[in-house]
Amino acid sequence: MLNDDYLISVDNVSRIYRVGEVSVEALRGVSLDVTEGEAIAIMGPSGSGKTTLLNLIGALDRPTSGSVRIDGMDITKMDEKDLTAVRRDKISFVFQFFNLLPVLSAYENVELPLLIGGIEENARKERVDHLLELVGLTERAEHRPDELSGGEQQRVAIARALAKPKGQASSVIVLADEPTGDLDTRTGEEIMQVLRELTHTEGGTLIVVTHDPEVGQQMEKLYTMRDGTIVNVS
């Protein structure tokens, strides 16, 4: 049952892919609700459907059936123009491999979403400086990704994910797909702490897809998936 009190509502969603003559059911009747400001993890083995679910919440894909609502809006019924606006204003991704633009500095990578959003220069500078300070990279602002460590690159990616204009109708939804998968254990722990603290401090909502139980246990709620369904919530 859909409830507009939730920031995110996924209701009885299925997703079927066609691979040649074969139908692959990636999701089978998945439902979950996420409250604004919550930090949750989605765990499961490869092929369990967790990344497919993340892509549906992030408006990168559409379900075969069921619905996904973001801030009370049914994004499954939106046209591409409206979906683009939702992705721009409300949703940010943090990936395992950082996905920073190699020709841009740390500052410019964080600034890019604000530039695309039409934010004027002074407001952009204030926001980028603030975020780089929060992730401890003020002194590395002019360095390009290849001049940064893996942990520093992921910090830049987190700052970029939170680079949304102030005063949005709802807080940013940060969707992190295996954000520590390419990092050593110690750096991964530091990144998860930064990701949780910053998302909370900046008024965001965090959904992390992971195969790492230690990452899952750091979240407020843990959904375990298997064979395209949620089999446990803890």
Structure commentary:
- The chain is of the alpha/beta class and 234 residues long.
- Helices cover 33% and strands 28% of the residues.
- It has helices at 50-57, 80-90, 106-116, 121-134, 150-161, 185-201, 213-217, and strands spanning 8-19, 22-34, 39-43, 65-70, 73-74, 91-95, 173-177, 205-210, 221-226, 229-233.
- The strands form 2 sheets. It has a 6-stranded mixed β-sheet, with helices on both faces.
- The two termini are 20 Å apart.
- The mean pLDDT is 89.
Offer a quick outline of the entry:
Helices cover 33% and strands 28% of the residues. With 234 residues, the protein is α/β, with parallel strands linked by helices.
How far the N terminus sits from the C terminus, by CA atoms, comes to 20 Å
Label the structural class: alpha/beta
How much of the polypeptide forms β-strand, as a percent range? 25-35%
Low-confidence stretches: none
Average the pLDDT over all residues and give the rounded result. Answer: 89
In spatial order, strands of the major sheet run: 6-7-8-3-9-10
Instruction: Report the order of strands and helices.
Output: EEEHEEHEHHHEHEHEE
Please tell me what the overall shape is: globular
Kindly provide the radius of gyration, computed on alpha-carbon positions and rounded to a whole number of angstroms: 18 Å
Largest sheet: 6 strands, mixed
Total count of strands: 10
- State the helix count: 7
- Please estimate the helix content: 25-40%
